[in-house]
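Write out the 3D structure for:
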Amino acid sequence: MNCIKVGITGGIGSGKSTICKIFSCLNVPVFSSDIVSKSILESDKIARQQIKIAFGDNSYLESGLINKKYLGELVFSNKEKLKVLESISHPAVNRAFQQWLIEIPENTNYILKEAAILIETSKYKELDKLIVVTSPISLRIERVLKRENISEQQIIDRIKMQLSDEEKLKFADYSITNDVKSRIIDQVIRIHHSILEL
């Protein structure tokens, strides 16, 4: 696969998913590590077993879906437990990404790999370029409160576990400001054309 591999990252609630949808509208294939990770933890028998051993049967709801609230409370307040979860999910996500790359059409100019902790895991080093999405913390908290059944303190705990926007920007080739003032479509199109020129 000879196309350019671009990472896109940002803290919880920064709006990565929305921005990825805009790139998708420009016919850019997007691999969402967070969605794939959740799917693997629900469908992969070995991963399910490992999660239950590490975190208990409450890790899954009766429906078989991952208990995000329970797991989140455990791992986002404890770095060691977070490392255990990542040691189970990350290798499986990486295998899924490699398989996904094989299926990308040959004439693809570039792909996006979206993940919240591309920098923290050093996975950005395996990619050609990196986009960092930034957003004010108050707005990030507001967004997550609307979409997830967790408390404001839990969101703050998750934010603390990730690098700050300022630290992330040190690694960025491109950045997108996702606040109420900046036009994200214009920023995406500008980056899109810049990557195509590579």
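The first helix runs from residue 16 to 25.
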